[in-house]
Amino acid sequence: MSCVFCDIVEKNDSNIILYNDGQFVAFKDISPAASVHFLLIPKTHLGNISELNNSHSDMLSRMKEIADRLLNDQNILKQDQVVGFHVPPFVFVPHLHLHLEKIYGGKPFGITCSTVSNGTISFESSFGYSKAPFLPFFTKTKLTRDTRFQVGEISQVLVSLAILRLVDQGLVDLDQDILQYIADLQFRNESQEKVTIRKLVNHLVDIEYQYFQGYSANQKLPSIQELLLGKSMKKDILIKSVGKYRYNEAGYVILQHIMETVAKKPFHQIMYEQILGPCGMDNSSFETTGNLSVGHIWYCNPIYFKKRVYPYASYPPAVKGLWTTSKDLALFLIQFCKCVNEEWDSLLSPLTSINLKSTKPEIFGWHHENDLYSVQGETIGFKSIIRNYENDYVHFHNILAKSTDIPIELKLEKQLSLKDFFFRWLNYMFGK
Prior knowledge:
alpha+beta; HIT family, subunit A; 8-stranded antiparallel β-sheet; 6-stranded antiparallel β-sheet; 11 helices; 26% helix; disordered C terminus; HIT-like_sf; Beta-lactam-related; catalytic activity; HIT domain-containing protein; AmpC-like
């Protein structure tokens, strides 16, 4: 399986590599969650932290030493430094990588959580603010149950379920060549393998434009053609390979275009009719309307990253465009579980529901392992997670002023109840 970090090591591009000592390599995160956000990796491929054992202790100590040195070289105060790993399964690239970040203040502003047990919402709670202005004497806006959060890549699991509903309605076939549905885009396929909707949904197509960094809230999003062909509007879209997993946001832009073409409706209307409405997600939208929270990355400072400016960054809707609440995502999860279990009142037919069952680790936008499903979403100023624990699901959002990467020293106990997990997390994030 191709690894994007191994590719970076192999190319050894001095414009990307910040540090290289022959054993470890450091470079800037492609989607930074802070003003300084580096990744440190071993050059030899190693999976996530679940694969580590006592034999790796020297390696981890060495990585910590390098991380401290790199952050100190940036003149970052010790209290503003965060070093840690993502906890599996919330790891987008399966190559061990340590996050090095500069964060002011060290505390998030708001977090909300909902859990589902036995097909119903069993627990809801929220804490903090949806807006914390730069000056502390300004009025802060408290979170409410109606406050919408930007949930990043979680948008994609809703899109994939909407596509399966279109399959049931006879509008698309998962295994047909996408050229059957869209004629206004030209592709140059170096692999010569057929590109299908199933492969796009499962990130099995490596397309030249892989990621979208976000646009100003006041900036009009580029057209589908501009997103995929670039500013120069090249003649065709380059497909590098087909069949190997490679997280690729351009695939979901193409899926959005296919959905709009076959349904002959705007994307946000399709998503309301296929998912948001049937799931009862009345406080969710793929449009930037309603009671929106403000993403923060520095202490009491709303997001301001180059062209991605206050109060939030905009993204292609099918990629990271969903604004929703914790409760609404819990309602979606209830319906998703019904589809997986092939219940009579689910949103999918039993035949189509089979597509959600697989032995592969990545399936229709979800990370899937041992019958457990999880997905993580992240945009500038926001991070969201969905995970199920033996038929119970936990979902929480938070507006970031600090990385939510788990420090090396912090261990989570699998025996924690969902409520205990939430409050343990609150204590970690907000505690001294």
